[in-house]
Every structure is written in C-alpha cells, then in structure tokens.
# Entry
Amino acid sequence: MDAKINLLLSQLPRAAVATPPWLRTLDIDRNLTARYLRSGWLASVAAGAYTRAGDSPDWPGALWGLQKAGCPVWAGGQTALELSGLGQNLVMGAAPITLFGDPGAKLPKWAVGGPWRRPLTLFTPALLNETVAESTSFQTITAGEIALKISTPERAVLELAYGVHDEAGFEPLDHAMQGLMTLRPAAMQSLLEKCRLVRVVRLVLLLAEHYGHPWVKRVDLSALDLGSGKRQLWPGSSIHPKYLISVPKGFLNGTV
# Structure
C-alpha cells in the first residue's frame, strides 16, 4: 500500500464523498484516482464523486464532500434544527435536506442526482447585510465519522422564516418556534440587526412574542429594521396587528 492511499484512507471518513478538488489537496490526481478505482480502494458514486469501496454514502457524506471541496454551503433551516435536536415539533419524513449557501453557490450534478435517501435542496438568499461572528451563525456537528458545518439554531430560525411565502410555509416555522425557548438573546440580536429581509425579522419576532419566549424580551427592537407598512405574503391571509405581516386566518383567534 503506497503512502498516498494511506493518507487518503486516514483523511476520508466512512460514508463520505471525495471529489477531485479535495483529492488534489492530497496530491492525488485524475490518473491516480483511476488507479485506486481499478484497484478497489475507491468506488464511484457518480461522475466526479467517489467513496471508499464498500461504503454507501448518504446526504451527510455528500455535504462533507461539498464542504471539503470548498463549496460555500451548509445545512440550514429545518434541517439544521433537526440536526441540533430541536426538530421535535417538525414533521420530517422524507423532506428534502435544506442547504443554504452564499449567493451564487451551485450544487454539482453529482450532488443533485446522487443516491441520497433525502434529496438536497439549495437556497442562496442574501439573508444578512454583513457577516456576523462565526459562533453566531454556524456550528459543527458529527454524523458518524463525518463532521459537518450547519447553521446555529438562531440562524436556522431566520432561514426557516425566509421560506414563508404562504400558509403552508408558515406552519413549519410556527411549529418550530413553539419549542425554541432557549435561543441565545445576543445571537438573535446580532442576526436580526443584520437581516436584510423585513418580513423575516417580523415573523420571527411575532412568533417569539406569541409563544412567550424569554429571549425576545432581551432584544432591543429599536436597533432592528422593521420597515413600514403592511406585508401581505399571500392572498386571503390575516394581518398581525402589531407586526403588520401575514398570518393564517385562524392564527390570531387560536383556531390554528
């Protein structure tokens, strides 16, 4: 066994996906990759994506491969809450894995069409108008041998609110917020201050107040951009009397 295959096997976790950009950081070029495939050290997942022979990678391995290749994406929104153990109020099932990324980020073909049990969906909004501290936005979790960058619960809430465009989108945010009593006030202050989307700020605040979250009492509302005027996100919705944004018709009278 040569030194490079030893290095590869020491660096490539079980069920993780290796890509040519990452392999090149180990000084493993296309010809050497082909040799390892022929020799049975590696197996092909899809064009441009490889795994240890005998492994059956799922979406965590795909996300690891994307992140190691320098693709600016992470698990966010509903998926990040699930991975943080805060998805008790969310219906997951076979829901797509929600990835967020820097504006302009794209998933390669191998990631979109790979053999994952749950498909990958990528959103790339310019959610914040400037960066915040890494510890405010991101955390690392481990799935088996695989370490993944994901959103903190505080950022994930904003990402989940970003997806609210109708009553169906409001429901998972509403369910999630019911259990998020322990979000960090300082992190929420920083993220809400830098959020570019007024509708996201309003939705998060109104639900936090609705469910009596203690952290929202420590947020300085005067430092937030709440915009002006009503924001009706879908036809036929009710308008929240304080935050002037769409909620389902039965939300205010407690029937939903």
